[in-house]
Specification:
This protein is an alpha+beta fold and 252 residues long. The protein folds into two domains: 61 residues, no CATH class; 176 residues, Umud Fragment, subunit A (Ribbon). Helix content is 21%, strand content 36%. The strands form four sheets. It has a seven-stranded antiparallel β-sheet. A hairpin with a 6-residue loop joins strand 3 and strand 4. The longest helix has 26 residues. It starts with a helix and ends in a 17-residue tail after the last strand.
Length: 252
């Protein structure tokens, strides 16, 4: 069962705000006399007064500024690993209303190389995280682990290390230099030519051979974007010690 935290938080904020407003305009409840047992309305007003500012603050931060997410899989290794907790900048690609996700202010668009969180079009209750490779109107060719975008080959070089015995390669997407994993340099899956429709973005995982991305789920419509992943704030896997070295890492 997937819990819609945005909906719950919005409903609680609205409900407590309505009670506070009614009390200010109609009930005009005074502080209860300590010698008398407070009634149900007094208790409701007291709790609403206490929680409304906190709920409103959390709702604004989570909806419009930053939202925390946990990395559940290895599709973005070595950039992000399972157990990373990240901050996602919600205002990077426009301000959207909570719950409905309707954009009401335009603030920018994804750039090639950005690491983004988006809602899965086939099931919007599920969030995915991938790297933007193709912009609207681009032609993306993926062949033998090499990317060619609009006829231009993307720089890909051997790295100087391994990640879990898997070779690390360094890719440069319009100046966004980052590491990727290639499990079998002699063979790649889902080679092909992909044309990105207007208003869509072609995304791929940095773990190129083990990522369910736009090669499988197609390009992502702009309205499903959640925000840009910017920084790791914690790394924790149950029954293990936190990896303090990853805290504060900027997402390349």
């Amino acid at each position: 069962m997937i819990v819609n935290l945005a909906l719950i938080l919005t409903v609680l904020t609205l409900a407590s705000g309505v009670v506070v407003a009614i009390d200010k305009l109609v009930w005009k409840t005074e502080d209860a006399d300590s010698r008398q047992a407070p009634g149900a309305r007094d208790i409701l007003v007291e709790y609403s007064r206490s929680f409304f500012p906190v709920l409103l603050f959390v709702l604004v931060i989570r909806s419009f500024i930053f939202e925390p997410f946990r990395i559940p899989s290895g599709s973005m290794m070595p950039t992000l690993v399972e157990g990373d907790f990240i901050f996602v900048k919600k205002f990077a690609y426009g301000l959207r209303l909570p719950v409905t996700e309707t954009k009401f202010i335009e603030t920018g668009n994804p750039k090639r190389g950005d690491v983004i969180v988006f809602r899965l079009p086939s099931d919007p209750s599920i969030n995915y995280i991938k790297r933007v490779v193709g912009l609207p109107g681009d032609t993306v060719v993926y062949e033998r682990h090499r990317l060619k975008i609009n006829g231009e080959m993307i720089d890909l070089n051997y790295g100087d290390r391994e990640f879990g015995r898997v070779p690390v390669f360094v890719e440069d997407l319009d100046g966004r230099v980052h590491d990727i994993l290639i499990h079998n340099p002699e063979f790649s899956t889902r080679d092909g030519t992909y044309r990105v429709p207007e208003g869509h973005y072609f995304v791929m995982g940095d773990n190129r051979d083990r990522s369910k991305d736009s090669r499988f789920i197609s390009a992502i419509p702009e309205e499903y974007l959640v925000g840009e992943a910017v920084r790791v704030w914690m790394h924790f896997i149950p029954w293990n010690m936190p990896d303090w070295g990853r805290i504060g890492t900027k997402i390349q």
